[in-house]
Every structure is written in C-alpha cells, then in structure tokens.
Design a protein that fits this description.
Blueprint (H helix, E strand, L loop, with lengths): L1 E6 L5 H12 L5 E5 L15 E4 L6 H12 L3 E3 L2 H6 L2 H10 L7 E4 L22 H8 L3 E5 L9 E3 L2 H8 L7 E5 L5 E8 L3 E6 L18 H18 L3 E9 L2 E6 L9 H4 L1 H21 L11 H7 L6
Parallel strand pairs: 1-2, 1-3, 3-4
Antiparallel strand pairs: 5-8, 6-7, 6-8, 9-10, 9-11, 11-12
Helix pairs in contact: 1-9
Length: 317
Amino acid sequence: MKKIGILFGKERSFPNAFIEKVNSKGVEGIVAEAVKIDKVMQGEPTGYAVIIDRISQDIPFYRAYLKNAALTGTAVINNPFWWSADEKFFNNCLATKIDVPVPKTVILPSRDLPADTSSESFGNLAYPLDWPEIFEYIGFPAYMKPFAGGGWKNVYKLESPEQFFEAHSETGQLVMMLQEEIKFDEYYRCYCIGGKYVRIMPYEPRNPFHLRYVADFKPDEKRFKEMEEIVLRINKYLGYDFNTVELAVRDGVPYAIDFCNPAPDADINSVGQENFDWVVETAATYAIEKAQASDGTTDNLTWGEYVKRSSGKQQLY
C-alpha cells in the first residue's frame, strides 16, 4: 500500500477535502491520510510515497522532517530543498532571464542590524545607499514588501520618498524589496499543479478579502493562452509542483507580480467553490500520479530547469 500524506497547520477545508478526494477515487494500492509524526530517525523512511507540504515554511522541524523524507524516497510537494533556498527577489531576477515581464524591483538591506552583527559587519555596504538612483529607477507610487514570505504581511504602498523612509523605519530586521507599481486593467491568480495543470482565476485584489475572486473581467482565448504559457514557463524553471502565479495586465501585457507561493491559499471560503473543487481534484490526481510512479528508492523530487541547467552547465536562456 502506498500512502499519500498531507502536512498542514490551521487550515482544514483543503486538507480534509484532499484526503477524501484521493480515497474516494478507489485507486488500488493508494490511500491518503494526514501525516503522523511520532519520531524522526536520521536516514529512516517515513512510510509515505508522497507528502504534500502546506506548513513547513512556518515550522523548521517539519522542514527538516521533509528533507529526510525526500532523502529516503518520498516525493515531497514542493521540493523542500529548493523551497528553502528560494525567495521572491530571486524569482524576479530569474524572470528577467526567461522573458517574463516583471515590475522593476530592488532589494534593500534590513533597517535594523541582524542579530549578532554590528556596523563593522557591513564594511562592503555603502552608506547611504544611492537612494536618488533607486527612486528614479522604481518611481512612485511603489510597493515595499518582504523579499521572503507571503500573505500580504508587512506590505506598504508608498507615494513618495518621505513615505518610504517612514515605512522602512518600521520594518526592523526584515529584508525588503521596493517594487514598481503596475497599474493594471485586469489581474489574475493562477494555480499551477504538476507543472502541467493550470487554472487561471480572475482576481481583484482591491476588493475586500472575501470578494477578491469576484471580478467582472475574464481573458479572451489569446490572452488565456499567453498567460498559461507564462505560468508554465515560470514553474518549469522554478520546479514547483504546487504554486500560484499572480499576473497583472497593463496595456495588454501580463506582468508576473508574485510567483513564489508554494503553499498557496486553497481555502473554500476565499477561493470559492468552483476554484476549490478544481484544486482539490487536480491535486488529488497529481498526487496519485506521483505515488504510482514512485518506487521509494530513488530521488522523487521535482527540480526546476534553473537548477538542472546550472548543474549540467547548460545555458539558462
């Protein structure tokens, strides 16, 4: 019997529905359950052919457990080694090399010194930074957000350098990005599962949270295909099995705004019934595919084209 596990935190609607959906399919030799951990021995298998990870970004113990699971043959969705290394600024840098339009973005050192450092630790960093050049490059209005993490935490909309310095003084040890505002006509949030299944969802981030998936626009066939190709290209290079890509359309051009979401919102109360049904069905289908392909003895992780081409010394683009 091959087991598919799902590792999760406070969320309930997606994990419970996922388990029920996998088991309802009645695939011989496949069963799904919530992951149970009572001990973690180095180099010992977990007993799961597949684990879908929804929480290790917040719990380092779980991330260590998943790396050990991957080492012993579990197909972990998403790859815990790559997820540990990835962040939003790198995503934007990569996008510039694979012909995906993105907002102009710069990364900033933290406002406060990191723990166990002093001013002497930053001898390579100019002080002050070249703020006039940075502000000219980005322009205002602009957004400032953490270079890692998600959930619209610590996100600021800024109208001027004065607002920037005031807001930046509140960010403590967070490393922030300053990003050009894309004044969009349409906005889409796009699930990508297994590097091949895509659902493009009209999304209105200016609406109240519970109404953000209620929008009065939708893409025509040409725009749909263009956005689908962008979503697939991004996930092909990053190597995520389960991710969302947010696209803002300005003057007919889809800009990738946020595409480092390896534990994306899948709660029925926010995404709505139709989107929820799609993500549950598709995640179950893909997890079963991965379980059936797994023999428990080899590396069953997904690695993106960036890593594969770099390790093979091929040209990235």
